[in-house]
Specification:
With 153 residues, the protein is an alpha+beta fold. Helices cover 19% and strands 42% of the residues. It has 3 helices and 8 strands, in the order E-H-E-E-E-H-E-E-H-E-E.
Length: 153
């Protein structure tokens, strides 16, 4: 996956300037995506209602991989509408991904990495999804709004 283009995030009313001073590097966001233990995902029901839940997952090869029960609300929502938002636990060093989740058969390397990160866990349970971000936002609270960065692929 190619590196995204960084630009200034636009959050009207939050004092964000249009200049490029202080933009974060994508590597900064990837480090936090890889190091996180818990991730929040937001899906939408077929009726359009939001649903937010924490999940375990991995940042792997430029995408976010996670599993969830086949009959879970998360999974049912994704079958109906694959659009998803993924957010790290931290609001102090935030990384938010927007994209679509595709059901996958996880590669052996993903299953092995997942088992190491979350052992003991049975990686065979549920459905596996891969999220390739289309847009991402990242910022550090300590130097916000200067660090507010948007990444587009």
């Amino acid at each position: 996956m190619s590196a995204p283009r960084a630009s200034r995030a636009s959050f009207p009313g939050y004092g964000i300037s249009g200049d490029a001073d202080g933009l974060l590097e994508w590597s900064w966001a990837e480090e936090r995506l890889a190091a996180s233990r818990n991730y929040w995902i937001v899906t939408a029901s077929p009726e359009g209602g939001p649903h937010a839940m924490p999940v375990w997952g991995l940042w792997h090869d430029g995408g976010f991989v996670f599993s969830t029960g086949a009959s879970s609300r998360k999974s049912r929502n994704l079958v109906a509408d694959p659009r998803i938002v993924v957010h790290l636990e931290s609001g102090d060093e935030a990384v938010i991904l927007e994209g679509a989740a595709a059901e996958i058969e996880p590669p052996e390397a993903v299953v092995a990495a997942y088992a190491v990160k979350y052992q003991p866990v049975d990686p065979e349970i549920g459905r596996w999804y891969l999220v390739r971000p289309r847009r991402a936002y990242a910022f550090r609270e300590r130097d916000y709004p200067q660090s507010a960065t948007r990444f587009d692929w």
